[in-house]
């Protein structure tokens, strides 16, 4: 079924045809990444305030977990930025899979 869909659906194997789609996906990915960082950061801050008020060790653990989840945005943003680099002589298809 997948092979039939591949044959029937119009597509291209040219790298130049895919650059715009990669850039759009990268820009959309960065936007979603910053939104998730903001939401998780605010959640961690609210949890930290409740943790201080209640003294709950379980909530402290969940707060640290959410803060760590928020920090995963940093290496992902580096990957999106590196993925935008144009192709070079050594990496002829670019860095899209960074």
What's the story with the biggest beta sheet?
none
Average pLDDT works out at: 81
Q: Based on helices, strands and strand pairing, what is the structural class?
A: mainly alpha
Order of helices and strands: HHHH
Low-confidence stretches: none
Please give the share of residues in helix: over 70%
Outline type: elongated
- Continuous helix count: 4
Number of strands: 0
Strand content: under 5%
Distance linking N and C termini: 30 Å
Question: Radius of gyration in whole Å, from Cα?
Answer: 20 Å
Task: Write up what this structure looks like.
The longest helix has 40 residues, at 15-54. The protein has helices at 2-8, 15-54, 57-71, 73-83. The protein has 4 helices and no strands. The chain has 98 residues and is mostly helical.
Secondary structure topology:
Blueprint: H1 2-8, H2 15-54, H3 57-71, H4 73-83
Notable characteristics:
mainly alpha; 4 helices; 0% strand
Provide a brief overview of the structure.
The protein is 74% helix and 0% strand.
